[in-house]
From TrEMBL, chain A:
Keyword Transmembrane: yes
Lineage, highest ranks first: Eukaryota, Metazoa, Chordata, Craniata, Vertebrata
Domain remarks in the Swiss-Prot or TrEMBL record: The PAL motif is required for normal active site conformation.
Name of the molecule in the record: Presenilin
GO cellular component terms given for this protein: endoplasmic reticulum membrane; gamma-secretase complex; Golgi membrane
MF annotations from Gene Ontology: aspartic endopeptidase activity, intramembrane cleaving
Annotated compartments: Endoplasmic reticulum membrane; Golgi apparatus membrane
TrEMBL record, chain B:
Keyword Cell inner membrane among record annotations: no
The keyword Ribosomal protein belongs to this UniProt entry's keyword annotation: no
Protein name, as recorded: Gamma-secretase subunit APH-1
One Pfam short name: Aph-1
Quaternary state and interactors: Component of the gamma-secretase complex.
GO biological process: Notch signaling pathway; protein processing
Organism: Lynx pardinus
């Protein structure tokens, strides 16, 4: 579940984790059981049918009904798996992009791998001190200790503090949501995205310009950052082209991940990653977990939650538009055409329910079937952030070995695949972090310690396996 | 040297990209699975080598070289084992899908073989090459200690050929498994061992590269015929007279 500690000041840290909500495969309109509240700003990763692009409308989530007449149960599983595969791919691209941005920055901009006291540029010092001070509130135990045991103990203590802060903020959020303090939550979200979009972007841009020794005057900088930030606020919190919204969400996740990578001490970061996946598992699956309660409350009220904190990869499909008529007609008559092209794949959602849907009349755009159904996957931004933190840390620490980074990247993607598969099977809220982070951690440590020396020796002797 | 090296890298990168474009989108998931399998096989072989090295207490000398050679051979074996394991997994998944919906045509095994080979190849190529590539950016002189100055060129060419070989091996391997022709599997394993063994004679790059390229051409021809090609279809394709291919392209647009 996505728990966010939206920070309205520099002192707070934006922490988000995500979970996957149940998958609703193609909606048979006749079966509208269990409308499930979709947006869980908490990282619902779900497939849903949504009636409009307006974030606050109700999202009728439909379950695939096994009892629909004339539908073999194998069909629904097939649909589920097919949708599963498609959604996996729809999530690969943004997750990969976020990781690429983070790794590229880490490898090129020295700022994000330097520890706090070692900044080469005096000008950057005042910018970096404040976030450093604020984050060190969460990780007060230093890792500059003489013994390994002491360092380990300190990192565990740091983790405990961090996790308890996260738990406290989550519970606070759930309480706010339960008592319908929507304005407070929205204000909080807006302040945190303001900070990300303006302050962190400004710092990032400053460091990138310094690295490449490009001069930029303040008016240009102001104009650039202002435009970037303002458009971002509009896209994320209000309306905007989907692609732009996705791009902004990816960028703010990358910025947040970079902040974590810079300011979390090394060992603490790894322990925190592990602990947060355990917490995610507990919070989403336990009956009294805060995130589960949040989801259930949202479901009861049939409300979307905090759309600003979920990445949505929705495909927009419109019934009733002339261009799609033949294919949707085709879909009605031939429920299974695996050779269907990408376009008409979306209209797949109306399989063999002719009794439910009237065939769209060609060239009649005004009819009531002209809806926009978004069938997409949603993944919380916390997932993006923690995946990128893992890969970024793999790129930053140790030998700067690319093999380790790649191994972690593949491991995380495989974890994501598996999680989406489980989502398709279980059809309920699932945490997105545990499997990926576990794989990522295993592969990081094993690749760094076992594979790297092997590959280095092979490469130096020019041996190929 | 370095601009040339970049040209080579881009060439083989372009080849990989083209292969990507040709392959369907849905196979991206499968390719990642493949990459994962290769990674796990690499992990096991590194573990073996690491343990062997620890057992011999990291002594320098010829024993390290022998251990390395042993490590390479074990790694090749483990890779082929994982290829087989992946084949089994795919077969099971296909059967599962077919049992769910018998009318649905499963993706052809040849396509899966190709994707599998590509996944293995990409991962193998990337792992072999990316560190060398990043080092080539940095300041330095190739061969300053008396090693061959063609280090980067050789790496680039070898990586290219390994990727192609993995693709062809994948096709031949899967076909052998499908038709229960175990000799094909053995040949794949032996050629893999041969190619790796040929690299032991570096820095005599000439023999190494030439023989590896001969092997790649042979494997390519074999894979082509195994995948159902024939001289006739090749001619039609080259002369752009292959109606099925042209129609297929039009349809998919």
């Amino acid at each position: 579940m996505l728990t966010f500690m939206a920070s309205d000041s520099e002192e707070e840290v934006c922490d988000e984790r995500a979970s996957l909500m149940s998958a609703e495969s193609p909606p048979p309109r006749c079966c509208q059981e269990d409308r499930q509240g979709l947006e869980d700003g908490e990282g619902a990763d779900q497939w849903r049918g949504q009636d409009s692009e307006d974030d606050f409308d109700e999202d009728p989530d439909h379950y695939v009904c096994g009892g629909v007449p004339g539908q073999p149960s194998g069909l629904e599983e097939e649909l589920t798996l097919k949708y599963g595969a498609k959604h996996v791919i729809m999530l690969f691209v943004p997750v990969t992009l976020c990781m690429i941005v983070v790794v590229a920055t880490i490898k090129s901009v020295r700022f994000y791998t330097e520890k706090n006291g070692q900044l080469p540029y005096g000008a950057g010092r005042e910018q970096s001190v404040q976030p450093a001070v604020s984050l060190s509130i969460y990780t007060p135990f230093t890792e500059d200790t003489p013994s390994v045991g002491q360092r380990l103990l300190n990192s565990v203590l740091n983790t405990l503090i961090m996790i308890s802060v996260i738990v406290a903020m989550t519970i606070f959020l759930v309480v706010l949501y339960k008592y319908r303090c929507y304005k407070f939550i929205h204000g909080w979200l807006i302040m945190s995205s303001l900070m990300l979009l303006f302050l962190f972007t400004y710092i990032y841009l400053g460091e990138v310009l310094k690295t490449y020794n490009v001069a930029m005057d303040y008016p240009t900088l102001f104009l650039t950052v202002w435009n970037f930030g303002a458009v971002g606020m509009v896209c994320i919190h209000w309306k905007g082209p989907l692609v732009l919204q996705q791009a902004y969400l990816i960028m703010i996740s990358a910025l947040m991940a970079l902040v974590f990578i810079k300011y979390l001490p090394e060992w603490s970061a790894w322990v925190i990653l592990g602990a947060i996946s355990v917490y995610d598992l507990v919070a989403v699956l336990c009956p009294k977990g805060p995130l589960r309660m949040l989801v259930e409350t949202a479901q009861e009220r049939n409300e979307p939650i905090f759309p600003a904190l979920i990445y949505s990869s929705a495909m927009v499909w419109t019934v009733g538009m002339a261009k799609l008529d033949p294919s949707s007609q085709g879909a009605l008559q031939l429920p299974y055409d695996p050779e269907m092209e990408e376009d008409s794949y979306d209209s797949f959602g109306e399989p063999s329910y002719p009794e439910v849907f009237e065939p769209p009349l060609p060239g009649y755009p005004g009819d009531d079937l002209e809806e926009e159904e978004e069938r997409g996957v949603k993944l919380g931004l916390g997932d993006f952030i923690f995946y990128s933190v893992l890969v970024g840390k793999a790129a930053a620490t140790g030998s700067g070995d690319w093999n380790t980074t790649l191994a972690c990247f593949v491991a995380i993607l495989i974890g994501l695949c598996l999680t989406l598969l489980l989502l398709a099977v279980f059809k309920k809220a699932l945490p997105a972090l545990p499997i990926s982070i576990t794989f990522g951690l295993i592969f990081y440590f094993s690749t760094d310690n076992l594979v790297r020396p092997f590959m280095d020796t092979l490469a130096s002797h020019q041996l190929y396996i | 040297m370095s601009p040339l090296c970049f040209v080579k890298t881009f060439l083989h990168g372009a080849e990989v990209m083209q292969l990507h474009l040709v392959t369907l989108i849905q196979d991206r998931t499968k390719r990642i699975c493949n990459a994962f399998f290769w990674l796990v096989s690499l992990l096991f072989s590194s573990l073996f080598w690491f343990m062997a090295r620890t057992i011999t207490d990291n002594k320098d000398g010829p024993i390290q070289k022998y251990l390395l050679i042993l490590g390479v051979l074990v790694s090749v074996l483990v890779q082929e084992m994982f290829r087989f394991a992946y084949y089994k997994l795919l077969k099971k998944a296909n059967e599962g899908l077919r049992s769910i919906n018998p009318d649905e045509t499963a993706p052809s095994m040849r396509l899966l073989a190709y994707v599998s080979g590509l996944g293995f190849g990409i991962m193998s190529g990337v792992f072999s090459f990316v560190n060398t590539l990043s080092d080539s950016l940095g300041p330095g002189t190739v061969g300053i200690h008396g090693d061959s100055p063609q280090f980067f060129l050789n790496s680039a060419f070898m990586t290219l050929v390994i990727i192609l070989l993995h693709v062809f091996w994948g096709i031949i391997f899967f076909d052998g498994c499908e038709k229960k022709k175990w000799s094909a599997l053995l040949v794949v394993l032996l050629t893999h061992l041969l190619v790796s063994a040929l690299t032991f004679i570096s820095p005599h790059y000439g023999i190494n590269l030439v023989s590896t390229y001969i092997i790649v051409v042979l494997m390519g021809i074999w894979a082509f015929f195994v995948a159902g090609g024939s001289c006739r279809s090749l001619k039609l394709c080259l002369l752009c007279q292959d109606k099925d291919f042209l129609l297929f392209n039009q349809r998919s647009r």
